[in-house]
Amino acid sequence: MRILVSNDDGYTAPGIEALYNALEGLGELTVVAPETNCSGASNSLTLDRPLSVRQAANGFYYVNGTPSDCVHIALTGLLDFRPDLVVSGINHGANMGDDTLYSGTVAAATEGFLFGIPSIAFSLTEKGWHHLDTAAHVARQVVERHVAQPLERAILLNVNIPAVPLESLGGVRVTRLGKRHPSEPVVRSSTPYGEPVYWIGPAGGALDFAEDTDFGAVERSMASITPLRLDLTHYDQLPGIGQWAEPICASR
Ligand code: MN
Q: What structural domains and CATH numbers belong to the chain?
């Protein structure tokens, strides 16, 4: 089993080191991760400049680009093999509900999935790296399960682990995504020269945190596994939007 490891917090983040150490012995591990923190980068690719790949003393490759850049480069030319699995994380903070659309952690896994490779994103739901060992334990369990019984089709899993001691972990639950918008307001500040600047505010609290959601599981001190898909088509709305758009579809 050859495993490509990436993240969005950067190659020096405690989370990627913990993930790397947790997976040791399960396969041949290769790390290709961003040079700097790219949290919130989503699926962005760097198209306006070339990218450099360098290797740290510990063997980790790092790229002056986004999480998607890292996995993309790894899969399309950097590596001389095709990984059997892409893992991303362990992220510093939750990636639940709407977070998945902004997340660079999920994006790194998404890039693997887009290339047809089973991919898994791991996130520790609270900042501060407390109980990172619990998340590392769960990550190893999930990857061990994949090694023992690989899923037939390429999968994209989003795993969130609560920041609790391992003995307090209430198990693992398969969930759907909850919802969290609206976000907190932007934080207005100013440059030393009087120009107004804005910090994007923190994510909002959970709006849909039903028991069967990722939020619901984590609230109950359980790790959450959500299978994701990428087809954003709203199939239920195809007929209605078809009718609505008829006049413009008929016009030339
Ligand atoms: Mn991050």
A: 2-176+207-250 (3.40.1210.10)
